[in-house]
Hints:
Chain B is an alpha/beta fold. Helix content of chain B is about 45%, strand content about 15%.
Amino acid sequence: MRRVIAALAAILLLLPFFASPYITALLLLIFMYITLAESWNILSGYTGYVSFGHVAFFGIGAYTAALLITQKAFPWILASLLGGIVAVLFAGVIGFICLRLRGPYFAIALLGLNEAIKVIATAWESLTRGGYGISLPPVPDLRSIYYAMLLSATAVVLLTYRLASSKFGLRFLAIREDEIGAEGIGINTTRYKHAAFILSSFFPGVVGGVYAYYLSYIEPESVFSVSITVKMIVMSMFGGAGTVLGPVIGAASLALVSELFWAKFPYLHQVMFGALIVAVVLFIPGGVVALLQERNILPRSRRV
Amino acid sequence: MGEKFAQIRMSRRKFLKYAGASALLGLSGCVLPPATPAPVPKKPIRIGASLSLTGTYARTGQDQRNGYELWRKDVNERGGLLGRQVEFVFYDDESKPETGAKLYEKLITEDKVDLVLGPYSSPVTFAASTVTEKYKHPMVATGSAATNIWGRGYRYVFQVYTPDDFYMDGAVIFGAEKGAKTMAIINENTVFAKGAARGATKKAKEVGIQVVFTEEYTRGAPDFSPLLSKIKALNPDILLGGTYLPDSVLITRQAKELDVNPKMFAFSVGPALPDFYKSLSKDAEYIFGASQWEPSLKLPGVKEFVEKYKAAYNAEPGYHAAGGYGGAQILEEAVKKVGSIDLEKIRETLAAMETTTIFGKYKVNEQGLQVVKPSYMTQWQEGKREIVYPKEAATAEPRYPTPPWKERK
Amino acid sequence: MPVESAVTLLQVAIGGVLLGAVYALLACGLNLIFGVMRVINVAHGELMMLGSYTTFWLFFLLGINPLLSLLFSIPLMFLLGMGIQKFLVSRVVKAPELMSLLVTFGISMFILSLALYFWSADFRSVPYFTGSITLGSFAFSRPRVIAFGIAVVITLAVYIFLKKTKLGKAVRATSQSSEVAAICGVDVERIRLLTFGLGSALAAAAGSLLVVIYAVNPSTGQTFILKAFAIIVLGGMGSFLGAFIGALILGLAEAFTSFFFTAQLSEAVAYLLLILVLLFMPSGLLGERE
């Protein structure tokens, strides 16, 4: 097991030196989606608070980093980390408002919040340049971005793994299964919900910053796009929400599947993608991880 | 218990080994350079482009692809480019900048295309041009009017469209000639529409028209009546919109409903499309639109292009299709001048040359920004879209002022 | 206040109410489905879009009056809605909310991409009723007044159906508690089928009316669905009447924000209202308590 992980790590670390830039670009986007899906999973998969607005953290990170890079000449790595921190601060504030809500109310509140932020980012032209978007200096080398995304993905997966195998994380699950009951046995649910919310907001902010630098151009429509939230949800669910490996498997496999589809069926791949989602929910509702567990390919452990 | 655990571990190990091995296989398959065929002297020239075949820009992206495709057929019938047949490698970027960037990365490094052509839309062009710049691949960027793309010091990207800043010049200059004094400007808050409005504001100042009202709105806004109520109170001579099709249709409809009567309506995108008239029928009369290109233009090759396009796609070509064809012609011209696929020389040629395609004139400044192509003003007259400005291209006299809604039949 | 500006303000209010009526048709159907099944139907916007296209094609190909085409689009989407419920959604009604959400999202994507494939991303509109009816110094947009009238009639009819008929009462009973309803002899499966059909039919009516006042393309459903979500929270999730009132409030709020501030800001109103409501009355205006 260790040897496999070590081999995989070595491959991923050395890959940019022998793979084509296209493969590097493909993989760095997969790492980005792993980070996003896994972050969403920390909140929504483990505590059951389904977020429809998680892209807000991504967008906030992207804008923070883009502004720091272009206005204050910050190095991009620092700017991206600060993007994550601003996202956390933001999560801290809105958590007080939104975490009092439950079920679909919470989901729709975050959806609305993201839309409101998008409008603000568009209208506050003196700061964000509004719909003109922000151009950043071009990226000399994909490798550094690749490693930043790989690092983020690894960090968030390790974090989730730690959570899943700790008492701290067990309390998240208690909230998901029965919040009132959890409170009854003395869990400070408010505290744990806030913790989950904040933990789930940091990495989307960071990769938002890296993404802005990678693409060298951002505008509100693209970094606050609902479709990014949707991807996080679909990828997590496909792999298996509330598991450590689920979002990783989901993000990687769906990204590869759509990469394959798209070359062959430029017009109809979205149709097939839609059908695939329906099929997965109807036939493997627990996601790929549950399927593998049923077949005893993966152990039935919380640490998976 | 222990045994069972070991079993599970074993199977997990097996699984991971299998997964790792297959990942390796898959990757190495991608990493290996594609098998190079024996060097045949007449191997085709491969040109790559990513286009928005699905998503927000699907319609216009498809039109542009049709334009490229028609050019390929034509050039191959003429015996090809540099005596070699032309092949396209197209991908769908789903109207997303990140996908566009990844695809140009793929086209250049994986597919190893000889040349690239531009994607559609400003956001995708922004992202794609960063990639082509990195690989020093000259890109004729048909499909974007956004001036901002050319303010970044890039050397390998060349504009085909009239820049957004100059889009509404015709309307403003014409209005001033007719004695208009005041103008209200409204626009969608996205990059191209903002640019069109910014350009109109600048031009208005130059020709002495006072801008009495400006406001922006969001894509998909379902109701313009509050905005139009404010404009009605100011009663400007010109109502100018930095719009796309659906908003231009809605603004026109609601202007009629609220009886807003400027002497001139002018919109950036919308009125120059056939769908504008289909959506509004007679209410489209008198409305001015800006157009990159019209099928009635008297430029060499336009007539043949329109006929061939109709035969191939059973539809009248719009400017996105013509832009695709014209953009490819510009690249063709540059390659012919150089006489080989030498990217650096092609870049130099694109930067310096002057030519006329079916899409209009082409010449760029040191930034790569289009400087000679005018924007044409159209007006709906008796159900026909006539070119009314500039005068040398006009197919009809402009009708001014627009009669109040109540006096129309 | 000078007379002139009072007239303008009233004019703005008229515009807001007229806009609210179309929101209402969409949101009422969505909320009906949510109330009975606790399913947030993400594909609702696409069902609306299909209603728009039905009306458009009937007008474009056969010259059928857009009002008459409601007689086609409504039953058509009723059937499609029932089909979606029977074969897809019914399998996940009892699963966690996220599951049904995902299924309807997949359906939405499927319909949207097929529509793009067959009909392209062209914007379509039916130029049928244009201009306005003037009463004194007020202008009432003709297409919007007609849409408003029909929206009110249809929602009223559904409201009366829910309140007065036996079947309607069964729908409401299921909405309050499907277990209790089942014990009382209500065929819950059938009620769900009916509800999904009814909700889809309302979406179709919204779509048919929208294509007369707006230019529609396959993505239009997505633009409106987000606001419909905000409206049902505003009015109270599961409350049919609440969705109607919430829609009118949103229409008015957008119109006045656009008038007093900017049109750009008016697009954020839905979401700002949503957050305020959630803060101060978490179950919405007419929603049931949690």
